[in-house]
Amino acid sequence: MELTATEARRLRHAAQLLGGSDLSPTEVVTRAVALQGQDLPGVLRAIAIRSRPGTTLDDVRAAFDAGELVRSWPMRGTLFATTPAHLAAILHHTGERTRRSTARRREQLELGEAVIGRARGVLLDALQDRPRTRAEALALWQEAGIPTDAGRGYHLLFHLSVEGLVHWGPFAGTDQQLVPTGETEADPDDLVRVVRGYIRARGPVTADDAAWWLKLPKTLVRQVAARIEDLTVVTVEGVPAWVIGEPDVPQPSGVTLVPAFDEWILGYADRSLVATPEMLAAQVPGNNGVFRPAVLVDGVVVGTWRVPPRSAKAPRAPEAELVERTSAATRKAIDRALAAWPHA
């Protein structure tokens, strides 16, 4: 099946559940395998907008509190929201590669095995009593004579998480707390389910997209994809891509607002299908690595948006900063979407 760029974007919009769904927050993340979680407020909103109507941010936080959802570094040295089962499956295939790729950084931070071993023992002992916030974990290490400055504390948390020992779980106010990660035995078919889930929740995707997202060799990803029974190969503007099942192109998706660091942008190695270079530059000002919330029109990113700081009198409505040219009717639709945004 040959798809135009417009058809591919509409299929992606449906696959990403950006029109909502009848799923709970846990079911949304289970289906997607993992959602970019570098920005905690952003990922809570990303889960909520993909869930059943009426889902609140408190509902999403409750799934973390119940242990159904977790947040950790399963791949690419990047935080994701995922499930305990998916976290174990992904780390089984990516953990050692990540540890090898960060060896030089540990050396620069003077985090040898002895220091890491002490930090591991201090934190795991403390977590037997109760969950700990990041500030509490760093304070425990400081009291034990383990320096946490210059990025050492962050890297220790990252390293122990990649080892599969701890993850971010329940909330204490607006902060997530660290808890021990239980042992989950990896199933040989787990990677097949992971790759299928990635494609199902984002397709059409290329093999390069999938390999980049998982940070695994392309050859391995292609071998795994070949085992997916309902995988369908399509072409998008002549480029081979994967979807799950037989594609049925939806109607135009209209205006959609996505939060910061959303998978609509960060779920793919090649983002040219949904945004121009000028738009991507505006979404990450100064190439600082901070992805702003995006305004989509039928899947095309046309601008960014934000919720201004709350005034003394009342909350302020979200406002957009458009980069691409839009019609007057489209701008009115964007204004309506901003006014209706439920997760300020």
Question: Could you please describe the fold and organization of this structure?
Answer:
By secondary structure, the chain is of the alpha+beta class. The chain has 2 domains: 23-180, no CATH class; 255-340, no CATH class. The protein has helices spanning 5-15, 25-32, 40-50, 57-65, 84-101, 103-108, 113-127, 134-143, 152-162, 190-200, 207-214, 218-225, 263-266, 277-283, 328-340; strands at residues 2-3, 34-36, 70-75, 78-82, 132-133, 166-172, 175-180, 231-236, 239-244, 255-258, 294-297, 300-306, 319-322. The strands form 4 sheets. It has a 4-stranded antiparallel sheet, sandwiched between helices. Strands 1-8-9 form a 3-stranded mixed sheet. The protein has a 3-stranded antiparallel sheet with strand order 2-4-3. It is globular, with a radius of gyration of 21 Å. 38% of the residues are buried. The model has no long low-confidence stretch (mean pLDDT 95).
Give helix % range: 40-55%
- Spatial extent as radius of gyration: 21 Å
Could you list the spans in which at least 5 consecutive residues all have pLDDT below 50?
none
**Helical region count?**
15
The secondary structure category is: alpha+beta
Query: How much of the polypeptide forms β-strand, as a percent range?
Result: 15-25%
Largest sheet: 4 strands, antiparallel
The rounded distance between the terminal residues' Cα atoms is: 40 Å
What's the arrangement of strands in the largest beta sheet?
10-11-12-13
Order of helices and strands: EHHEHHEEHHHEHHEEHHHEEEHHEEEH
Number of domains: 2
Quote the average pLDDT.
Answer: 95
What general outline do the C-alpha atoms trace?
Answer: globular
**Strand elements, count:** 13
